[in-house]
User: What shape does this take?
Amino acid sequence: MKIGYARVSTEDQNLDLQLAASKEVRCKHVFIEKDTGAHAH
Assistant: This one.
């Protein structure tokens, strides 16, 4: 089973290309993260 991971770090970015690539390689599950490193503790 393939598992994908998609991440963007700004509000201006979107996940479309990453999600399309995950779908193309037939990932069963895709984890999505929308966060900026500036808020990391």
About this structure: The radius of gyration is 12 Å.
